[in-house]
Amino acid sequence: MQDPFTLLELPHTFDLEACVLRGALLKGSLRWHPDRFALASAVEREVAEDHMAALNQAHEKLSDPLHRAESLLALHGHALGNGTDQTSSPMFLMEMMEMKEEAEAALASGDISQLKKISAALRANEHQRIHAITLAFRDWETAGRPDAQLDQLRGLVTEAVYVRRTIEGMRPAPSY
Amino acid sequence: MVYSDKVIDHYENPRNVGSLDKDAMDVGTGIVGAPECGDVMKLQIQVEGGVIKDAKFKTFGCGSAIASSSLATEWLKGRTIAEATAIRNVDIVEELALPPVKIHCSVLAEDAIKQALADYQNKQKGASAPSED
After folding, report:
1. Which residues, other chains included, contact A128 with Cβ-Cβ below 8 Å and sequence gap of 6+?
2. Are A114 and A45 in the same domain?
């Protein structure tokens, strides 16, 4: 399976504007859209459909800065870990836990305005982290992509993923 | 996914939910997380004369993560430090009949136990060593 950058014929860089991504998807669609295979054989049509679906997925993935960062890290052998997190500090985890506790308490007491406040704070937090990640990846690429910085980049992305999962977890649906 | 009766029991009636004073000398705290699902687990032990008198946990995560940490606190109470060190995630997997996709929840619990024990032992070392400030 090709990586999403290669699929969309894009350079392996973090610095991809939305319009560049759209352009790449459009270019791929012109070639692979199932409509162009209306008269082709069933096999060819299926291949085109699969490829078009892969292009859409790749576009969706790269359009999200966190997923884009994860894809780049994975390409450099630093995929985000499965299982216990060895990178985040206990202090950060405690902060996330406190945020979740506050959200849980607000949800239990039906305090919607407090819930909105927490949610807004988390979104601002995520936004700041994505900004920091953007700058860090830019520095890393400018410096010639040194391996020595990959652990630190992964740490930044890991923490941002926590914040995002915490926001998602605030929707009142049990994850069980 | 089908959860075992034991997982559902721990999920619906979690044992030992709560917090101990993390700054107390006789308390060890472990906090671990799994970024891909956003789970965070805090596990604390209170030790008296080498024996774990009390254990508390607070977990934000799926049913298996809650059940794993709930079971861990049950097992920890009354054990010595050495006995607690011997708890392995496979024991939790077996007891709760966790499916393969949920094994990482038991790993999380084992890591939380290890961290809590290490935190407690660090505090004891710090207490016996001369103060540096």
Report:
1. none
2. no
Query: Backbone phi, then psi, for B37, in 5-degree steps?
Result: -115, -5
In a domain? residue A126: yes
Based on the fold, state whether residues A96 and A131 are members of the same structural domain: yes
- Domain end, chosen from A44, A63, A82, is at A63
Q: State residue A33 phi and psi, 5-degree precision.
A: -60, 135
- What is the domain count for chain A? 2
Distance CA A33, CA A44 (A): 12
Tell me whether B108 touches chain A (CB under 8 Å): yes
Q: Is the pTM of this model over 0.90?
A: no
Could you tell me which residues come within 8 angstroms of residue B88 by beta carbon, excluding any fewer than 6 positions away?
Answer: B110
Contacts of A166 in chain B (CB under 8 A): 38
Q: Which of A84, A96, A165 has its CB closest to that of B107?
A: A84
Inter-chain touch B36–A82, beta carbons under 8 Å: yes
Domain that holds residue A138: 90-169
Query: Half-sphere exposure of residue B9, counting CA atoms within 13 Å on the CB side?
Result: 7
Q: Is residue A85 part of a domain?
A: no
Q: Kindly tell me the sign of the dihedral angle through the C-alpha atoms of B98, B103, B105, B106.
A: positive
Query: Would you state the structure tokens that stand for residue A81, as one six-digit string?
Result: 């870990």
Residue A174 lies in a domain: no
- Cβ(A48)–Cβ(A40) below 8 Å: yes
Q: Number of C-alpha atoms within 13 angstroms, CB side, residue B104?
A: 17
From first to last of the 176 residues of chain A, give the pLDDT tens digit: 789 999 999 999 999 999 999 999 999 999 998 888 888 899 999 999 999 999 999 999 999 999 999 999 999 999 887 666 767 788 899 988 998 889 888 988 999 999 999 999 999 999 999 999 999 999 999 999 999 999 999 999 999 998 998 888 776 544 44
Residues A50 and A106 in one domain: no
Q: Is the separation of the CB atoms in B64 and B1 below 8 Å? A: no
